[in-house]
Amino acid sequence: MYTVIVFHDGRNDYLEQALTTFDEQVAFPEQPYRILIDDMPEGRDVGMLHRIAARFRVDDLILNDQNLGSFGTIMKAWSSLPPGTEYVFHLENDFVFPGPIIVRDLARVLEEPSICNITLLRQAWYGDERELGGLVKVQPERFREAVVRGIPVLLHRDYFGHNPGLYRREFARVIPDTSRSVPGQILSHERIYRDLLLAEDPTRQFALLGRLTDRPRVIHIGHRRVGKSPDYEPGLADLDAASLPPEPEQLERERQVLAGRLETIERELDRLRQTS
Questions:
Q1: Which of 56, 184, 217, 259 is 20 to 30 A distant from 109 in Cα terms?
Q2: 8 Å CB contact between 153 and 109
């Protein structure tokens, strides 16, 4: 059984884009169970979330009473997985899919017991990635090309990825939130969980789908934040401000997102006209 967890933080226009392209491009061997968890109670439009949930066949809509941040929300979602879940597809609300993804291929890679999760390559986002021409161009020695069960992958031990991807249910493990254990820093679940898994078994590894020369399989569109969360404090987040795209590029991405949203609405209106 496959379960999809969609992590949302109040940016409904991004969510619609993510789910629209997800439905269009991501093929599962069977109908997955769908969880949508929203971690932004401030300004929440409950009616809209219920409409989105109905439109995209969400089985369980979880509305956090307080903002838990990324780490806490992942833990809450993992604790809500239905019995029978074998694989979890992880999807944050600010990724879109430009081309087809065959989930069966991802599951085949996870038949290799040492691989904890497999994620999809995103485009260059931070300053060093843009300068060098891609995520995998930054410290390329982190990645090793391999073929697993006939599927080309990049193996690494750098992080338990939160980009869209798949992991086995056994690796959706609820652990204490230690993201604030270092004063003045917010540690990521991706690396806290990596450290835990590798401490238990140093032979474990993680995977990216594809080769070093492949084009991105997902596009990150989420430069705009909404509200305040445990993951975003100006005093800490501004340390990384120089790594974000320049403002004209951010505005162009915003324009593209809004244009895509308009296209989605027009398609939905056409569908309603045809069924009325």
A1: 56
A2: yes
pLDDT tens digits, one per residue of 3-25: 999 999 888 888 998 999 999 99
Residue 259: pLDDT band with limits 50, 70, 90: low
The Cα 222–Cα 154 span in angstroms is: 25
Q: What's the token pair of residue 41?
A: 């109670």
Rounded to 5 degrees, φ, ψ at 151 are -110, 125
Q: Percent of the chain beyond pLDDT 70?
A: 81
Q: pLDDT (tens digit, 9 = 90+) per residue, 226-250?
A: 444 444 443 333 333 344 445 455 5
**DSSP result, 46-81:** HHHHHHHHHHTT-SEEEE-SS--HHHHHHHHHHHTP
Total residue count of the chain as it appears in this document: 276
Q: At what angle do helices 69-79 and 189-200 cross, to 10 degrees?
A: 60
Nearest to 1 by CA among 85, 104, 117: 85
- In CATH, the architecture of 2-275 is Alpha-Beta Complex (3.90)
Residues 39 and 50: beta-carbon distance below 8 Å: no
Domain definitions of the chain by residue range: 2-275
CA distance 182 to 152: 37
